[in-house]
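Why does this matter for the project? Reviewers at the last site visit asked to see concrete outputs rather than summary tables. In response, this paragraph embeds two records directly. Each consists of the residue sequence and, immediately after it, the corresponding structure tokens. Nothing has been edited or filtered.
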Amino acid sequence: MATKQATLGQWLPWRGLVLPLLLVAIWELVVRARIANPVFLPPVSDVVRQGARLVSSGEVWVGLRASLARDLAGLAIGGALGIAAGVALGVSRRADRLFLPTVDALKQISPFALIPLMSFWFGLREPAKIAFIAITCVFPMLVNTYEGVRNVEQKYLEVARIYRYGPARTLALVILPAAAPSILRGLHVGVFFSWLGTVGSEYFFTAGPGAGNIIIDGRNASRMDLVLFGVVVIGLTGYLLNVAVGLVERRVLHWRTQER
């Protein structure tokens, strides 16, 4: 019985590979059976061959470095603005009444609708891409921070009053630690949206190094093997970013697990 449980425990971390491997098997069967035109759905081996060529030449790493750099820059700006605004709205009822209706209206606007405006303000190069990424992730972080701050339990605030904490000390020692789970959830969602924004920015603004260029180059050359490899690179990078943020979240919030 113990052996069975150990075997099951070793298998479980790999269960997420079942669906991708199944899709690859179906893809290969469809191509071999000539159900799909190989021009539109090339064999898996062609995609692997093109991927190996791009990896060995270093093109993939150059593009990924550029994409991750602008992704982190946009995430840092959007995160700083979102968290600061969320804290301000959460701790101040006056700011809440004055500005929350406007925030609720603005977050309904798709970032893609703002591309002409950002092009006019920032041009078509790197500043515009980073601004676009920041806009895609600012509202998830703002909303989660606001909800976390507003939902801090009253008993914690009572303790701060008993110890005569000032506003700054109450914020640093009571409100932010209590709101940390919600803030980190916002960061998790923000990372997801910032990566989508990064890929979108590489489509809509002036071309430069980036992971999205693999797909753009494949589309321009009518090379579906390049397009599909680019999709894999973008999807895998997004997955790894999500895993990394999850690890940070668990590390930062380990005290909550210990309390339970």
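We now turn to the second protein, recorded in exactly the same manner.
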Amino acid sequence: MNPGTLLAIEDLHVVFHARRSSARAVDGVNLEVRLGEAVCIVGESGCGKTVTALAVMGLVPAPPGEIARGRILFDGADLTALSDREMEKIRGRRIAMVFQEPLTSLNPVFTIGAQIEEAIAVHERLDPGELRRRAIKLLTDIGLPSPESRHGDYPHQLSGGQRQRVMIAMAMACDPDLIIADEPTTALDVTIQAQILNLLNSIQRGRGKALLYITHDLGVVANIADRVYVMYAGIIVEQGTTKQIFSGPGHPYTRGLLASLPVRSKRGKRLHSIPGSVPDPSRKPPGCPFHPRCGEAEESCRKDFPGMCDLGGGHLSRCPVVFRKEFGSSSGGGTR
């Protein structure tokens, strides 16, 4: 684990068991988040991004889910070895999560003020007056208009953007060190999306927190990330700084994602799309899981699982074919 690392995921495998098969949703992920930085996991729906986050939070439903192998180190402690009671002391206080759809995460029969207060009361013993003051302060901090009067509102009385702000307030209730945000702007329009991103960015930068942001939108990544992990079929296929990923992607999947971004220079032209879809986690192809969709695939890609190739400066890519063609070597370290 590198100095300053707050979260280190090591060879994480998460499996979901069914009666006749098992789905390898996360299949050997390695990932680090340092205190004070914003890290993005980017990839298509079904690639294992959310399951990775749920594993960190200790929220993988068991059964049918199981952390089959690996470690999740948070501030040096292995979260996978902790009991439910021990995880409850960390969840909310030191690690908090902002979920994708606030309307399903907020309880419709309790006011937003009561729900924020509950998030605080789980970890701190405060009198009702102090709880109310803390909740209103949080609503003020996240920019909700008229926080004192909105304190008594129910979730259905708020707009989508306002509900997401409430979710962020709940996540920040106990001033955690790590915030995990799972596509929190997916259902919002572009203007509100930008406001939520700016809010998360200001909280993370202003308070020196670590942010793990999960998204399928590379435009979001460009705005908030220090470093990026590109995920496909339960594995990390490329990682590096935001500049490295955008200026010199080393994996065909990353290049496909970047080519599909709408930009002004492509106006009037058909957008690029990657053929096919993410494989079923219970029926992954042999070799490189991306090879059925890849224009660079060779015979070896259909047989051999690729290791990580070192492109320099912490930039790693799981594509020896591109590495050989562009860097003149067939080996890049060979790590999983």
